Amino acid sequence: MTDRSCSSSVRSNGIPDSPAWVHAVAAIPGCRVVPNAPMAQVTTFRLGGPCAWRVDCSEADRVAEVVAVLATSGCTWRVMGSGSNLLVSDAGLDQVILRFVARHPDIRREGLWVSVGGSTLLDDLAAFCAREGLDGLRFANGIPGTVGGAIAGNAGAFGEDMAGVLVQVDLVNREGRVVHVSSRDLGMGYRRSSLQDGAWVVSQAVFQLQPGPPEQLGSERERILSLRRTKHPDWRVCPTAGSFFRNLAPTSAAGVRQAAGWFLEQAGAKSFREGGARVFEKHANIIVAEPGVATAEDVRRLANRMAEAVYAKFGLRLHPEVRLWGNFPANFWDTSE
Ligand SMILES: Cc1cc2nc3c(=O)[nH]c(=O)nc-3n(C[C@H](O)[C@H](O)[C@H](O)COP(=O)(O)OP(=O)(O)OC[C@H]3O[C@@H](n4cnc5c(N)ncnc54)[C@H](O)[C@@H]3O)c2cc1C
User: How many domains would you assign to the chain?
Assistant: First the structure.
């Protein structure tokens, strides 16, 4: 094997053969490199075969260094956060996955401005803002995943989203250089942005918030967390990636998106099951995967059947919110952005 290799081959003595870039990344503080790493261990669906190498990086001020090394390696790579919006194929990924998740929140406040590392968990940021009397991220309470992942997918709830409070990001480009980009230039729309292919890394983000009473923000946080506990499966015990499909574009002057879950329920999806994957009994747009039984292909087949059922009843094509990584057969749903 040459030093520029991306595959994680294993010698006959069982010890993985490591190219030079692996040693260079492993020497960066806060980083770890794992060969042949099962994606099922780092996605909330708990599904997916191995990636060639997984690079764990927790610190926002180190991620540019990591990318600079990856750039010289010749490997193909992409970034992930907590894996709460991903379905990875059973065959895995023939590439390097940069997993950018912080062990501790990295948040600084200056007045109504908050600067946060892209690897910080979004819910940690929401809790910080509630304690500090900063309003604008109530919707983010309880959404799993990192700040970087939330910006890439413009995560949201209750009609609000990241685009409404995000001012600027630091992006690490393919060469490992940091560029400052205004949120206006990120192409953010309903559950999408120009960042979604995992090619550029959000290393830092700046939000502008409004003053709000900490007690009221704290009780609102508790209310939202409790609502989520009753409406959603707990992904720690019941593997899922949340809503599988995006809500549908508004058809009336009211401009309100129509819940994909309503159409799915009318189409009978709540009774659907494929292998170890089934539709969650309380929410027709959520797929849960039985641990140790379900495969990514079960989930894909089930989602495809759900999309077909909505099309057959309403003539509407659903669009997945969950990102599919790896090789999957062609699907019925709409893949345009
Ligand atoms: C129980 C449950 C409830 C959920 N509820 C909601 C909800 O209410 N609203 C909602 O919007 N979503 C919800 N989700 C989906 C998910 O939590 C969000 O999409 C989340 O923002 C994904 O973040 P992540 O770090 O897990 O990203 P990942 O799933 O790891 O990655 C998703 C995408 O983001 C990109 N990405 C990740 N990190 C970065 C980075 N630092 N820089 C650039 N790109 C990056 C990846 O390349 C990938 O394309 C839910 C999921 C679950 C399991």
Answer: 3
